[in-house]
Amino acid sequence: MLDKPMTRFIHDQFAKDYLEELLSSLGEVKSARVVRGEVREIDVWFSPQILDNNPRELLGLLGKMAINPCLFEPFLNPVTATEIRTCLLKLLEVEGEINHQANRQKTNLNDGEIPRLWILTPSASSQLLGGFGAKLDEENWGEGIYFLAPSLRTAITVIHQLPPTEATLWLRILGRGKVQARAIDELESLPEDHPFRVNALELLLNLRTSLTNDQELEQEDRELIMRLSPLYTSRLQEELDAGRQQGLQQGLQQGLQQGLQQGLQQGLQQGLQQGERLVVENLLKARFGSLDPDLSLIIERILLLPVEEFTPLIINLSRTELIAHFSN
């Protein structure tokens, strides 16, 4: 897969937001933390907290990683030896920063306060892993997680080697291709009241929206968009129904307050119109990420069409095509 900066940024931001969302229920997350020395940015720096009803077990292997302070460095493409060394340098700089703070406060630093580094990569060759002396600990961690020498406090998680179990689900969401697609299937099939299901799906839909706005996509990203399209359409329908219901309720309330049949009818009509406008605005925001002036100008013309006609146009046309369609 070619490394295009825009696409890589989109996936990197998704990975950071995703890990921050899941881990925030377990402790403090410092996303995009800059360390001293040359400007180096840590993707996710996590510090666990003692919480009542801790949901760590629900996150399976990811929750197990987050028992102690740690750094997460997720990669879109297979990690390289240079990138691993850069991650190790970040870890050493973090340790130096922690030691410096402890010396300044004249406190003793125990080994458990120094973070562990978790490098997350979709795949890795045996040659790369062997070059760092990385070895499996299947008894404690199973397949797919390779540990460097103990004093380096670092492990490389090869996501495509993780077994497809409930315990690895939250890590496999950060995989690629078929591995990620299967994980999305499993995520959708979780009970609707699962505490992490809704937010994870929302982040995936945000990822889809961002990728849709990128004009240069690899086939793998196009397949991801297609995989998320049914979920996206379902969410748009929910927005549509919610907008209609909200508009109807507003109309009823206004009509009841007026207390007259004419007022009721006018209130219903006005409420339905408000609901339709809300539906269109929500659809445009969900489709294109925001409601800019050019899109706002065509809302009145969109509302001239029945819902069943304008909905597929918003879903299927690009931003440029949509504006051109309703501007003519």
Tell me what you see in this structure.
By secondary structure, this protein is α/β, with parallel strands linked by helices. Helix content is 58%, strand content 12%. It has 14 helices and 7 strands. It has a 7-stranded mixed beta sheet with strand order 1-2-3-4-7-6-5, with helices on both faces. Helix 1 (5-23) runs antiparallel to helix 8 and helix 10 runs parallel beside helix 13 (307-316). The longest helix has 40 residues, at 219-258. The protein is elongated, with a radius of gyration of 24 Å. The protein starts with a helix and ends with a helix. The model has no long low-confidence stretch (mean pLDDT 83).
Measured distance between first and last alpha carbons: 40 Å
- The Cα radius of gyration reads 24 Å
Overall mean pLDDT:
83
Strand order of the largest sheet: 1-2-3-4-7-6-5
% residues in beta strands:
5-15%
The tally of strands reads 7
Detail the topology: elements first, then pairings.
Layout (H helix, E strand, L loop, with lengths): L4 H19 L3 E9 L4 E9 L11 H6 L4 E5 L6 H25 L10 E6 L4 H6 L3 E2 L1 H4 L3 E3 L6 E5 L10 H4 L4 H13 L7 H16 L6 H40 L2 H28 L4 H5 L1 H4 L4 H10 L2 H9 L1
Parallel strand pairs: 3-4, 4-7
Antiparallel strand pairs: 1-2, 2-3, 5-6, 6-7
Helix pairs in contact: 1-8, 8-9, 9-10, 10-13
